[in-house]
Fold:
Amino acid sequence: MKTALLCLWLAVLLTVPLWLTDLYFLHILITTGIFTIAAMSLNLLLGFTGQLSLGHVAFFGIGAYTSALLSLGFDLQLTESYRFAVAPKPVWLAFLAGIVVAGFFGWVIGRISFKVRGAYFVIVTISFAEVVRLVALNWVDLTEGPMALSAIPPFTFGIPGLWEETIYKKQPNYYLVLGVAILSYLVIRRLVLSRVGRAMIALRENEPLATSVGIDVTRYLILAAVVSAAIAGAAGGLYAHYVRIIDPDIFLFIYTVTMVIMVITGGKGTLAGPIVGGLIFGILPVVLRSFAGPEIQWIIYGAFMILIVFFLPDGIVPAIRSWWEGRVGPLAEPEPAELSNARPAERQAE
Structure:
């Protein structure tokens, strides 16, 4: 049953450009997909290790700026006698470099901030995001500051020297985002269902107990931070080459809040949670915009979020799964994260 539902989802997603002719709604799906990838990366930290990062948008922005700058090329006069210039690179190479640089900063922040826990970790991540935003805003020679980086080249498919196709239209951009989203999902799934994932979940559930049985806390948390930051950087790179203009507003705190909302409402600690939450809270503003004014939109948006958190405290995906299993039976063997998220009574019932 689970495989059939997965195949149905894939069939629907793969055929969207064939029956959705409104380019505006296709644009909404593309941007929603990009932020869903970012939410999936945040879920690896928040859902599977229990570490709340409120500066996660920093990795998104680092990936975007790195990919954009390398694809455009830049020339910096560092000192009177030393000049550093980089020629424009192929977009795919710049995109991969953005992923690597974002992952590197994830490692740096992990090494620094995982020495603390709780509110201190949150403060460190928020501070990091603000520092990165200020660098992007004030380093005008490199980032153009508030004037924004523009004319960012789009992705190009093909064989260099033989055939190349530049992606300007929305349909191929949709499939590109979908491909990266599927790859990110598979990477996260492979990680959390492995021995490493079980160690991460053990740290989330009871860190002192996990430490007592030999789990290296710092090692697994840093690994989660690196993978999470790299995937967020991939989402940022997709965003930069799709909209083709970025400015320091990409580091705004509201984007991190949006990711957190997608994770919490969909179901943190589940693989499908950020996807469901991303689709709902990515498309909901567009639906509200069709019949409500700006103030009413925010009221409905907030009320809907509060209702979900109040009536479905574990998120939408765990609630649907519990409802289905109570009437039809289990879809498949529970995943490690789902078992750990279950309440004591539910565990005894299993």
